[in-house]
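Shapes recur. One chain:

:::
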Amino acid sequence: MFMGEYQHSVDEKGRLIVPAKFRDGLGAGFVVTRGLDNCLFVYPRKEWENLEAKLKSLPLTSADARAFVRFFFSGASECELDKQGRVLIPGPLRDYAKLVRDCVVIGVSNRVEIWAKEAWESYSNDAADSFAAIAEKLTDLNF
């Protein structure tokens, strides 16, 4: 399980240090793709395979399903860590998430998310303001 929040920077070559606590969970090879809310999702190989199976089961006749699957898979890239624990994030993914320098890497249960620092701060502040209201809506999930 991934959890926690870490501040790192993308270097001039597009490399980002992956927090040491996340490295073992991600393994030798993992997948980085466009996520929701303009961040990047990072999945260990096994979690990616589970997600892939679920997305394959979506109905091909649904325009929304087709659009989501296209968006998700077309942005995906297989990545690995270098000897210093860094991942090279492909240019199109850096552009999508607006990763220029300062980043926040967070653990979200079965995946890691990479955010531009400003975007994370904005999202996090907005979510904190409505946390109680969101929790009330989750009562249907026995939270």
